[in-house]
Amino acid sequence: MANSKYEYVKSFEVVDKLLPNTWIVVRIDGRNFHRFSAENEFEKPNDVQALNLMNSCAVAMLEEFPDIIFSYGVSDEYSFVFKRTSQFYERRSSKILSITVSFFTANYVMKWKDFFPQKDMRLVPSFDGRVVCYPSNENLRHYWAWRQVDCHINNQYNTCFWMLVLNKGKTKKEAQDILKGTQTQDKNELLFQQFGMNYSNLPAIFRKGSCVFKNKVEEIVKHTESGDPVKRLRKKVVVSHCDVIEDRFWKDHPWILDE
Ligand code: GTP
Ligand code: MG
């Protein structure tokens, strides 16, 4: 077929292929969720149903896209990693990013009523996204550690902040001033002394964030004639709130990074 004289415009498109043989991490983040969470009356500092909704969207992602091998979420953000060898959309950055963001957002809207049956959603949610390639397993492990440390710092601060505001009648400014310059240990002390609260007893979903990945689970596929179960190992997408900074998790789940 002859080219039309207009076809040259295609040559303006830029190549955006991501580096080969690197882990592709896509992180999405809720746009203006400070307002979105207020309008939808999310509980402070953590709304467990809002977090469960995010996790459910991440599960849908892993079930839809087999190249995503692990994901980690906290607050209004979620990070997904595509396996090193992934040829998903020929590793084209804009394709991978736009599909991740739109599939996640569409699920968020579709699943809203499953998690908030009594609430009509106020405001239209949207997520920004970015793609980063990491060359080594160490870099990737440090990425998850970075996000989980962030989760801890933010959650501990927010827990103190909202306890002071909601239970001690402090203004936001007063709470801010009380917490200024405090270290982890001071905040644990404050929670214990003033509220009898042991930070480490808070639900792990708040303290650790959420991991979504394929785990090996034993499944009964049938029973023999004598009634004995026949089991098979199957990979199933699971949500858990584990520590991804220490070696333990990665040693227990070697297939995630070893492929
Ligand atoms: P941009 O991401 O820059 O568009 O702004 P943002 O308003 O989304 O802020 P950011 O992503 O830095 O932080 C997320 C915000 O979402 C938090 O500051 C909270 O206000 C809100 N948020 C997230 N999760 C919860 C929750 O479980 N409960 C409540 N009450 N608010 C939440
Ligand atoms: Mg945000």
TrEMBL record:
Main location per the UniProt record: nucleus
InterPro entries in the cross-refs: Thg1_C_dom, tRNAHis_GuaTrfase_cat, tRNAHis_GuaTrfase_Thg1, tRNAHis_GuaTrfase_Thg1_sf
Primary enzyme class: transferase
Domain Thg1 C-terminal: 138-246
Free-text remark on how the cofactor is bound: Binds 2 magnesium ions per subunit.
A GO CC term assigned to this protein in UniProt: nucleoplasm
Record keywords, A-Z: GTP-binding, Magnesium, Metal-binding, Nucleotide-binding, Nucleotidyltransferase, Nucleus, Transferase, tRNA processing
A GO BP entry: tRNA modification
Domain tRNAHis guanylyltransferase catalytic: 6-135
Binding site for GTP: 29-34, 75-76
Location relative to the cell: Nucleus
EC code: 2.7.7.79
GO MF annotation terms: GTP binding; magnesium ion binding; tRNA guanylyltransferase activity
Protein residues bound to Mg(2+) 2: 29, 76
Function field: Adds a GMP to the 5'-end of tRNA(His) after transcription and RNase P cleavage.
Entry's family note: Belongs to the tRNA(His) guanylyltransferase family.
Name listed for the protein in its UniProt record: tRNA(His) guanylyltransferase
Annotated source species: Aquilegia coerulea (Rocky mountain columbine)
